[in-house]
From TrEMBL:
GO terms for biological process: fatty acid biosynthetic process. Residues 16-104 form the Acyl-ACP thioesterase N-terminal hotdog domain. Pfam families: Acyl-ACP_TE, Acyl-ACP_TE_C. One of its GO terms (molecular function) is thiolester hydrolase activity. Residues 176-236 form the Acyl-ACP thioesterase-like C-terminal domain. InterPro entries: Acyl-ACP_TE_C, Acyl-ACP_thioesterase_NHD, HotDog_dom_sf. It comes from the Bacteria. This is Acyl-ACP thioesterase.
């Protein structure tokens, strides 16, 4: 069954890193709603900005995301800005949980007026500290001690939220190829986290009622996809929504679920 419990709220003692970004036309669908890939890009951007502008970025500059949880409580729409708050919610010696809150600020242009709901998206990221070549690495002791001032969970553990393989749930699978583009790969030589969402968005196109209500998207990156590999996407109905897997050489690389929020 999907995990539907609400993400933990921001504690009073949390120190937040905040930035406001301008939404662009390429971030939205024809209904002017911000897509999931745009949310993933915003999470990536604030993470990089936080690393660049924080003292701990000098000792722990490289991070990869193992999981993103995205709760679309109210869609953010374009045109406008989005304010992103980021804080640490849990720690361990090699990874941390980071919470992000996205709140829209509608603006008036020739496309729309400003009299629209602000929109709110709550997210959580499982982030692993790595070396330049992508190997998990211990977080600097001083950095960890500083973050531990704000959290109660200092033994943060991995627990999967998405079904690991298509065989784990019932239902008929739908399978199609997924074209890899040279522009999908990042500085680690892996398919960038944002690129996966294009396949998810395509699968959601046939399920407009799912995304018209509050919903949760979970993506778990199990192993990277690298250039010149051939990827297949497998989709199944799941808990009132869908489950989706990226498969390379008969091995699942990434598991995704999109389900209604209760």
């Amino acid at each position: 069954m999907p995990h539907t419990s609400a993400l933990a709220d921001k504690p009073a003692q949390a120190r937040t890193y905040e930035r406001t970004y301008r939404l662009r036309m390429e971030d939205v669908n024809p209904a002017m709603g911000v897509r999931l890939d745009a949310v993933a890009r915003l999470l990536q951007n604030i993470a990089m900005d936080m690393i660049d502008e924080s003292a701990w970025g000098a000792t722990n500059p490289f991070w990869i995301v193992r999981r993103n949880v995205i709760d679309v409580l109210e869609p953010i729409t374009w045109p406008g800005d989005v304010h992103v708050e980021r804080w640490c919610e849990a720690t361990s010696s090699r990874w941390v949980g980071m919470r992000q809150r996205l709140t829209g600020t509608p603006t008036a242009t020739g496309f729309a007026d400003a009299d629209r709901p602000t929109g709110r998206v709550e997210t959580s990221s499982f982030c692993i500290n790595v070396t330049r070549d992508g190997r998990p690495s211990r977080i600097d002791d001083d950095v960890l001690a500083d973050w531990n001032r704000d959290v109660t969970d200092v033994r943060y553990k991995w627990k999967a939220m998405a079904p690991a393989t298509p065989d784990d749930i019932d239902g008929p699978p739908a399978t199609r190829s997924f074209a890899l583009r040279t522009t999908d790969f990042d500085a680690f030589g892996h398919m960038n986290n944002v690129a996966y969402w294009h396949a998810v968005d395509a699968a959601l196109a046939d399920r407009p009622t799912l995304t018209a209500q509050p919903h949760r998207a979970v993506i778990e990156y199990l192993r990277p996809i690298t250039p010149r590999e051939e990827a297949t996407v497998v989709t199944k109905p799941y808990a009132g929504g869908l489950a989706l897997w990226f498969v390379v050489d008969d091995q699942v690389t990434t598991a995704v679920t999109v389900t209604p929020l209760e």
